[in-house]
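Extended Data, panel c. Modelled sequence:
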Amino acid sequence: MSFSFRVLPIFLIIASTAACSGGGDDNASQGACSAAKISGGESCSDGQPNVAYILTSGPSGGFECTGSYISLTAVLTAAHCFAPDTTEATIASRGAVRRGTEFTVHPLYDGSVDSPYDIAVLKVDVPLNNAPLPLLISREPQLGEELVAYGYGEDQNGLGAVGRIESGESPLKAAFITYIGNDFGSIAITSAGDGSVCPGDSGGPVLAKDGSGRYGIIGITRAGVGICDADADVPAFLSSTQTSAAIQFLNEVAPDAAVN
């Protein structure tokens, strides 16, 4: 599928936010941000070239989402970020604005909010000039394990990426969260006390450590906490990228994806 392309001011600002200062505890911020921090999360003041803000649009509307580069030309995000008549996708991260050239939705995705197959891959026109985020396939997280989630969505103040830029913060945030279970590809997480996932974080990567302490993607945000309370003791849900169905799909559409 071919897309049209517009460079909107928001994308140019996101691409040049490397020098912006974020709010919150700088040490906590760097702790989560250095893994590749969302509501209540810390601002990633240096941005991340491999975590992107995505805007899709078409005749029936569009979506603001988050995604991550898993290869130099493939961005992993949520399937619900695309309508059947999506005609345009623009992708911005630190250092560049890119055009989406085509997208592929997991063939088992049925459009429901409960689908564990809410996964899509968006191809871009210009390769990433930094390292992509790897998919973690060597181990699965354990109950109570600390994870890191990224997103451009709303924070506890109701500000999205644009609002944070206008307030002098970085648009990208990240937070430590806790793994509380996996039910047939639907991963449940909850706040670790400093953040949660919210609208606009959809498609954003959630990372765990491999056996050597290196971070890799274990899932993407699918459904967040509607009230966007940083300390809300309410589960949010991910689509696992570690199931056999997810791995097969990603191998087919992004065979050059980084793994660990």
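The longest strand covers residues 173-183. This feature is highlighted in the accompanying rendering.
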